[in-house]
């Protein structure tokens, strides 16, 4: 059984306190950002924006064990092999305790998983061209939630179906990288069931204002991955994003809105506000990695050739960090960064956690290292 090293109990408690506060939407103070005045409620005494849905904080529904058991009792044995108590609990939370609605949605998802087989979906676009998408798990936050980072400037593929496949594959990989439930429970916390997503909007343009892509994310999250999005950072959303946001925000439920933070990254300038926010969720090394990644992705010369290498990740997982070809590939990636030290494959703790543990990757990602060796 693979598990991750989680923070000390004191660190976990502090992070959990922040997690209780994270049910809020943070507006950006940047004058060139569209988020000023968006999703803001009444001003607080100190003049700061008050989230419009703040009244919901602390009122999230948590089902009792008896409610979970009642839902599970209505599933047949085949369904029970896929739907465990944790899944039933998530759907009950997502429906506010409406057992009938939760059961219907569970059955819809079970039918979808049998038809789609999401754990085996391969992003064929990335297999053909590594620059197709730039969205991958790169680390974990203080309580062990997988962190997804994406950057629009480095993604060349805008095909709706290709993006749907890549998104599903990333979500499934994030679930696979969640720490074992016993590991988090031992430190006094709830099981890790959600992820953090840092979506870097650098490179967003009018061609990205396609509501179909946003609808894919909303539909997948609501229908088949409820209660999976823990925190969502929208970084440097340009003014043009306002049009798309106004079109989709009415479809986002209040609880999900509370998980969104709008922040700006200022290249080669003071990013104290962003750093302070990230420090609430990540250790210092992961914060530094995210900021360095954002800086590198704003370097036009570097971004032209930069692509995420799943074969490199697969080789790291299968062979460990000390393997000659793995260390050589790492050195190449570092030299490609502006500081000659940054490895865009993932944060230091993430690479350490994955090294030598192929079972942490989805089966088709595990096979990439084998295919690379065969091709060589």
TrEMBL record:
One Gene Ontology MF term: phosphatidylinositol transfer activity
InterPro entries: CRAL-TRIO_dom, CRAL-TRIO_dom_sf, CRAL/TRIO_N_dom_sf, PI_Transfer_CRAL-TRIO
Region (Disordered): 1-47
Residue intervals of the CRAL-TRIO domain: 125-299
CDD domains: SEC14 (cd00170)
Entry-linked Pfam families: CRAL_TRIO
Superkingdom of origin: Eukaryota
Protein's recorded name: CRAL-TRIO domain-containing protein
Organism annotation: Chlorella variabilis (Green alga)
């Amino acid at each position: 059984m693979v598990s991750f090293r989680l923070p000390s109990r004191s660190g976990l408690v502090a992070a959990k306190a922040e997690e209780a506060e994270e049910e809020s939407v943070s507006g950006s103070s940047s004058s060139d950002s569209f988020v000023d005045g968006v999703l803001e409620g009444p001003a607080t005494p100190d003049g700061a924006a008050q989230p419009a849905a703040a009244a919901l904080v602390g009122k999230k529904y948590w089902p009792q064990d008896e409610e979970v058991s009642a839902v599970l009792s209505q599933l047949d044995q085949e369904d029970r092999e896929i739907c465990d108590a944790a899944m039933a609990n998530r759907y009950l939370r997502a429906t506010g305790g409406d057992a009938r609605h939760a059961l219907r949605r569970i059955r819809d998802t079970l039918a979808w998983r049998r038809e789609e087989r999401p754990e085996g979906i391969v992003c064929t676009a990335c297999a053909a061209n590594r620059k197709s998408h730039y969205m991958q798990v790169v680390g974990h936050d203080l309580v062990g939630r997988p962190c997804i980072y994406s950057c629009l400037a480095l993604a060349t593929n805008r095909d709706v179906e290709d993006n749907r496949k890549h998104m599903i594959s990333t979500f499934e990989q994030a679930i696979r990288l969640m720490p074992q439930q016993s590991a988090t429970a031992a430190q006094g916390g709830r099981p890790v069931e959600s992820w953090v997503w840092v979506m870097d909007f650098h490179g967003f343009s009018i061609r990205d204002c396609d509501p179909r892509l946003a609808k894919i994310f909303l539909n997948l999250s609501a229908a088949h991955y409820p209660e999976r999005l823990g925190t969502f950072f929208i970084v440097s959303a340009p003014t043009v994003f306002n049009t798309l946001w106004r079109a989709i925000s009415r479809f986002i439920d209040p609880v999900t809105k509370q998980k969104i933070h709008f922040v700006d990254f200022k290249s080669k300038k003071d990013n104290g506000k962003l750093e302070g926010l990230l420090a609430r969720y990540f250790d210092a090394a992961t914060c530094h990695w995210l900021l360095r990644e954002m800086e590198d992705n704003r370097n036009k010369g570097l971004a032209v050739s930069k692509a995420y290498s799943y074969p490199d990740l697969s080789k790291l997982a299968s062979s460990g960090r000390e393997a000659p070809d793995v260390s050589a590939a790492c050195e190449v990636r570092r030299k490609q960064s502006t500081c000659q030290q940054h490895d865009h494959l993932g944060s230091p703790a993430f690479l350490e956690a994955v090294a030598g543990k192929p079972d942490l990757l989805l089966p088709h990602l595990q096979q990439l290292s084998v295919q690379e060796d065969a091709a060589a």
